[in-house]
Amino acid sequence: MTVDSSMSSGYCSLEEELEDCFFTAKTTFFRNVQSKHPWKNDCKPAEEPRSPPTLQEIKQKIDSYNTREKNCLGMKLSEDGTYTGFIKVHLKLRRPVTVPAGIRPPSIYDAIKEVDLAATTDKRTSFYLPLDAIKQLHISSTTTVSEVIQGLLKKFMVVDNPQKFALFKRIHKDGQVFFQKLSVADCPLYLRLLAGPDTDVLSFVLKENETGEVEWDAFSIPELQNFLTILEKEEQDKIQQVQKKYDKFRQKLEEALRESQGKPA
Predict the structure, then answer these.
(1) Distance CA 138, CA 103 (A)
(2) Burial of 239 (0-12, 13-18, 19+ CB in 10 A)
(3) Angle at Cα 94 formed by Cα 93 and Cα 100, nearest 5°?
(4) pLDDT per residue as tens digits for the range 102-150
(5) How far apart are CA 17 and CA 212, in angstroms?
(6) pLDDT digits (tens, 9 = 90+) for 219-245
(7) CA–CA distance, 189 with 199 (Å, rounded to integer)
(8) Per-residue DSSP letters for 126-149?
């Protein structure tokens, strides 16, 4: 599995010859209790299992897919019936991730030799990945969701437990958006083939593996300390916003009083 990157802001690709860019959080790591548009988070019912397609059916689907793919990111069929292609994964992580502290980005040599830089230090730090970052992955038809998640974490040198994350498929249907959590054994490239190349019809999203209540025991002490720091900063920001709001009200009231006192009875 190979990885390419495309993102709006906040993180430099580890494949580029650039310094790593880390950004602080702009949003809280807590989810809103109630969404303004609840339907966007509705889960689509699980689909019935499909029978495995024949080699001829796969070939026909790949030919149809490639005729509609406009970005030279077509799929390629092998003699053994497997095939390779590209998927894009949107990263929508609202909590900080844990990475090794004080190490350089992996070089081409490290990638070839599969050097695990995260294992070279015990120091850890936490930071936020930018929302709406996109990673493009070159995978095979046998690559599972579990392998996709592990590959993404390895690419960003994230040392958190992969079970903290889940891959969702985002479906647009009848003007609504549905998210469905994928099984770790699902094969994303097969889903991409069935849906076609249009990412408005189907796209993949990496999110936290929400199980209801936050399992605080799953976080390390540095992560919890980082959460407290973020909460304190957000608290101070909210206090300043409220103070500015009422300072403006007070200023307008005082101006109105001065104007009324200056008028003749």
Answers:
(1) 26
(2) exposed
(3) 65
(4) 665 555 444 445 555 555 567 778 778 887 788 999 999 999 999 999 9
(5) 40
(6) 778 878 888 888 898 899 999 999 999
(7) 13
(8) EEBPPTTEEEEEEEETT--HHHHH
